[in-house]
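Q: Hi! First time doing this. I have a protein sequence and I read that you can turn it into a structure. Is that right? Here it is:
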Amino acid sequence: MSPHPPIGGIIPLDGAAPELSYPGVSPQLLARVRQLWSAAGLDFDHCWRLGLRSLPGFRAVPRVEAAPASTDVDLVFLYDQAVLWIRALHEAAAIGRQHQTEGLAPAQWYGLAALSARLTEQLAALRVLALTDLPMPAMQIARSLSEDVDMVLVILIRRKLAERFAACRSAEEASDFWRRHIAGGRAFRAISERLYAVGIDHSADTDYAKWRKSVLTTLGAAVHSNALNTQVPQRQQGAVLVNGDSLHFATFRIHELCAFAQLLEPDLKGALETVANTVSSTCPLAALAGPLSGIIVNQIQSLSAPPASTPRAAKHH
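A: Yes, that's right. Below is the predicted 3D structure, encoded as structure tokens:
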């Protein structure tokens, strides 16, 4: 089988086990993930087919016989579950907004639904790019995705800001909101202040903040082609991914979103549970958002070391 099939060239059969889409995945990681799902009373196979196989552009990871380790495949496996959580979060937020579910303000439900929809599209696009060796657009999407993660967290901790976001009715107003409240690290500073209040130091002089800044600088360079080396990265012998750095950073940020959202907005978990109780039989993805949050947080320790270009990421878990 060619390691470079066309987009959509490998799609698992409807009834195929999820692991068949990840040839070479670590048996230990697969067993741990299945154990987490089982302990939460969730059907991993059914939810995977519902939320991931239906993802636009979905394809299985190409089999590379000479791969020296399972690292790349494991990364895609963890990334896909982060995608599944974002899709579930979007469904839950849309229903929370519709029913004005208690726990979050209407503007927060609105912002969460809108931004999780955008995150879903970005994650789907990044997945396609990661499996088709297109590093520059992958870097652009990873940078944009990181900003949207920050924006979600800001909306959860600042209700008035959520109201301003919800009040935007034109591209100009949305651009002005972004420039005033999100761009230039403004959102991250607000998040860092709130995290510091609960005992997590992400101030500018910490290793985490320096690592994050260096990664975002690298990703941001993809927007300005004159600042880039024009040599396109080449697939190494036995490698499954060329875009492992972008995929790793995106997975890392979704893990952060899941953990920090529950920490910074304690009412979120209860609100998601209320949504689940409302629609558990009619919208299984929405009902998955709450219980899957705990599984995603538990998977943080399984996120393997990043590529050499981002050496500090792993130790922040």
